[in-house]
Amino acid sequence: MTVQAPGDGALRRRTTKLGIVGAGAVGATLAYAALMRGVAQNVALFDVNAAKVHAEALDLSHGIQFVPMAHVEGSDDVEVLADSDVVVFTAGAKQKPGQSRLDLAESTIGIMRAILPRLVEVAPDAVHVMVTNPVDVVTHAALQVSGLPPARLFGSGTVLDSSRLRFLLAEHTGVAAQSVHAYVIGEHGDSELPLWSSASIGSVPVLRWRTSDGRLALDEEARTRIATDVVQSAYRVIEGKGATNYAIGLAATRIIEAVLYDERRILPVSSLLEDYYGISDVCLSVPAILHAGGVGDRVEVPMTDAELAGLRASAEAVRRTARRFGF
């Protein structure tokens, strides 16, 4: 998009602004990934810890020479996010080893309640992406607290989980992860499920992929092991290093690109469902079309009866938690 530059009659390309709430491990890594990929010309970080957010912005700024040109700023004043095109919410309680995402809900919702209304004031036209866990419950709560339309506020959902699934399938079958096409849907958490029936490698259904000696590569035992590994991946990372940050930073950056570039890319984000296979009034991850306005049509991927039952069970698990907090 081009706009008239004031005074000189020249045309200038419109700049884009990415706002990030939280300068912790995820927020700072997200800013780094966004700069490396040249996602936005302006990156703004907000955190209540002034020393931390200023230091992160300064450290990132010192590397601007080596990435596509951008401006970075950080502040403990929410005004730093004014006029952002996309605001990503990463602030929240830190997940501890052995703690489920749903255990984080109470403290994280409290943080979101305190900050989100002001975010909407300073960036009224932004698309808001919730990354903080438990992302499905937080996204549902954020919609009610903010009053924003469901298209303009959604969660990162199972975009990362789907990437983990594709990585594990690639490792198991000996192909590039980029050639694997598979989704994880439902809760971003313990009740999520892979859609095996629609997964493919190249154009070959994964359930028909064979090893070099002609055996089916993904029998029931292999699928169960891989699905369990996907769910437990975050717990293993947290146990070993205290937080997940690199992969979620890259996943969130991919979501931001789809919005800022109006790509109409299909990604399994967490959004408010209305009659998706009969499921309504709950935020869950299903494949959806992302564009400049946020999240668009949800894609009704064909499912087996078992997969649909799993999705409904996942929806009920998220609903139970949301009800505990009045949502």
Automatic annotation (TrEMBL):
Fetch the PROSITE patterns from UniProt: L_LDH (PS00064)
Residue ranges annotated as transmembrane are none
Residue(s) carrying Phosphotyrosine: 235
**Keyword field contains NAD:** yes
First-level EC class = oxidoreductase
> Where does the Lactate/malate dehydrogenase C-terminal domain start and stop, copy by copy?
158-317
Q: Write out the GO cellular component annotations.
A: cytoplasm
Q: Does the keyword ATP-binding apply?
A: no
The record's principal subcellular location, in a coarse class, is cytoplasm
Q: Which UniProt keywords apply?
A: Allosteric enzyme, Cytoplasm, NAD, Oxidoreductase, Phosphoprotein
Entry-linked SUPFAM superfamilies: LDH C-terminal domain-like, NAD(P)-binding Rossmann-fold domains
> Which InterPro entries does the annotation name?
L-lactate/malate_DH, L-lactate_DH, L-lactate_DH_AS, Lactate/malate_DH_C, Lactate/malate_DH_N, Lactate_DH/Glyco_Ohase_4_C, NAD(P)-bd_dom_sf
| Active site positions, chain numbering | 188 (proton acceptor)
Domain Lactate/malate dehydrogenase N-terminal per the UniProt entry, residue ranges: 17-155
Entry binding sites for substrate: 95, 101, 133-136, 161-164, 244
Q: Which reaction does it catalyse?
A: (S)-lactate + NAD(+) = pyruvate + NADH + H(+)
Q: Where in the cell is it found?
A: Cytoplasm
Listed EC numbers: 1.1.1.27
GO MF terms held by the record: L-lactate dehydrogenase (NAD+) activity
User: What regulates the activity here?
Assistant: Allosterically activated by fructose 1,6-bisphosphate (FBP).
Q: What does this protein do?
A: Catalyzes the conversion of lactate to pyruvate.
Q: How does it assemble?
A: Homotetramer.
This protein is called L-lactate dehydrogenase
Lineage of source species: Bacteria, Bacillati, Actinomycetota, Actinomycetes, Micrococcales
